[in-house]
Amino acid sequence: MKHRKGILLFMIFIMLAGSLELWAGNASANGLHEFREGEYLVNLLDDGDGQARVFKFTTDNKITSSNTNLRLYINQIEIDAKKYTVDYESNAITMNKAPDSGAEISIKYLIIPTFEWGEGISGKSQIGNALPEGDGSTRVFKLTTNYLLSSSKNVSLYIDGTKVRASEFTFNYTNNSITISEKRSAPGANSKMYFYFPVTSIAGTQASAGETTESPSSGGAITPGKEVESEFQVPEGESYPGHITLNINQTFIVNITSAALQPTYTSYIMVKNANGEVVRRIRIKPGESLTYSLSKLGLPSGGYYFYLKTVNQSGGLAASIPLFVPINNEPQHIQVYIEGHKQTYAQAPVNVGGNILVPFRAIFQSLGATVKWNNSTQMVTATREGKTIILTMGSKIAYVNGVPITLSAAPQLINGSTMVPIRFVSEALGGIVEWNLASNSVVVFQKEPTIPTTAEGEKEAKSDLSSSSPILEKISNSITAPTDIVFVIDTTGSMGEIIGYIKETVKKFVDSVPSGSKFAIVAYRDINYVDRYHKDLEFFSFTNNKNVLKTNLDKLVASGGVDVEESGLEAIHMAVNKLSGSKNSKRIIFITDAPVHDKGTSQGKAGFFLEQMIAELTTNKVILDAIAPTSGLAYKQIIQLVNSNKGKLYDINDASIMLLNK
């Protein structure tokens, strides 16, 4: 795959030598071979051929042995630095031993200020740039870039991974300066700051002689055989075309209008825990009003954020504003949430005449106040940011900075604990307090929660759940001898929930098949479209360790694809190849929600005919079971693959996390 991409990059270089390079709509200071991963840039090198030991890497960032730490990876495994040398002058790595043929080789190096890279954010092509780190007082930062800019529109700034509101900073493109407004504190010492500007604002590049190289007015070259999709149009935030409504009976209603209904658009209910990690991704159909039960989500008691999201397969993303939802699986007990986190008290909260009382020391400390107890006067004194609160046991008169306030319930002793009214305490310290009747919970926020809804902010929570999938149970029941199994999984943008479903259920599946079986994964997208962050085809080696398999599944990210058909035949061909040397029975579990590109009907977009894959499965005695659509073109194609060797087809609509808890 990388050889193919290398050839394509060379073709673009010849076509655009000396000009601004655009790759499938992405401005590329660093080309297709380099992208950001956390605080590092990853650079993809040529694949190994079993003989070459010297590998060149290309980057516009000036890296040296002193300004960053370069690390080498082969097949995603880091290589000991003693086994290779780096020539920073010629950008070359020499290895002691030639990597195997087909080995995937990459380098990773730490991002420092002025480093620059291409990145897609919410479906729009952007250039990312690392700014100088904060020092706690500086508010103006200089952007050092390879480009000349013509606009300050649609720029974005991230400080320590959190997106800064547009009202809290300004960008002057004439002198390339970013200014943090007084609305926000100056970035703290060692704060990591990343600034992004759209490709559309680029007027040219900085030439060494001070000349300007104009960007192509046509929008750049598109590599032959590679395509791009028109710009994503769904609005986000308050303008998002959908909403979630909570009901008292522990249900919620979801409605997304037909504005989000397109053949290559997919919509979800996203659920994050209090730490901002994704715990549920539920695929839904726009244009319908749907009612769901909170209890059917199978989540433990706690605070969660719900929002709606629509994506297209090339990475375009729009999301609604997150809604905080407390879930209480024991509604007979009162819960308290502060800043989204469930509180635990030695003495449980109590309801006294409609007032919720909580232990005084715990509530004040969780709200950031210092607290003192005077046993002789039976008084509680709490202070925070120039505000002093005094309460007296048994008295309904409290004082806030000396001003008397009448309470609806007096502090009192309950089971040896001094209890105070949570609403008064929280509001006196500037918090907003709500009573959630459905969950029997008090919810307190002192500041507006900042829950990222970008693709970059959707880290999945680690889970040890071992849910049982009815589909995988049926497949495992048909396996009676040790079998080598390859999961061939469509990882395009519409497959987020299905991938989550497989992740949650695969452990029990592994436990239920005969001993001696091994498992591998082929993840695929569409070889016709450029996704600079994810591979078209990726193989994860055979293992008999269910935890290793789960770890490999956790690496899968739903992204890319663009058109309806995907490169499923190429993925099945790879899986058959990997199974060819197996002494066990051979099986493929093919998981997709889309048709495949067939060379017979998609000339130039597919490398194989459907009939070829049917023949390969039959010749190699590979059973193919599929979790796929049971209607339309996908069904007409996939049922032929399934029938090639007595496999079975299961409806992908039954592969839903929601169904695991019914």
Structural summary, described in words:
The chain has 662 residues and is an alpha+beta fold. Among the domains are: 237-322, Immunoglobulin-like, CATH 2.60.40; 335-445, Copper Amine Oxidase, Chain A, domain 1, CATH 3.30.457; 470-661, Rossmann fold. It is 15% helix and 35% strand. The strands form twelve sheets. It has a six-stranded mixed sheet, sandwiched between helices. Strand 39 (412-414) and strand 40 form a beta hairpin. Helix 5 runs antiparallel to helix 6. The protein is globular and about 90 Å long. The chain starts with a helix and ends in an 11-residue tail after the last strand. Mean pLDDT is 84; it is low at 1-32 and 207-229. It is found in: Secreted. Its main location: secreted. Residues 484-662 form the VWFA domain. Keywords: Secreted, Signal. This is VWFA domain-containing protein.
Number of helical segments?
Answer: 9
Structural class by secondary-structure content? alpha+beta
CATH H-tier superfamily of the domain at 470-661: von Willebrand factor, type A domain
- How many strand units? 48
Task: Determine the strand fraction and express it as a percent band.
Answer: 25-35%
The CATH topology of the domain at 470-661, please?
Rossmann fold
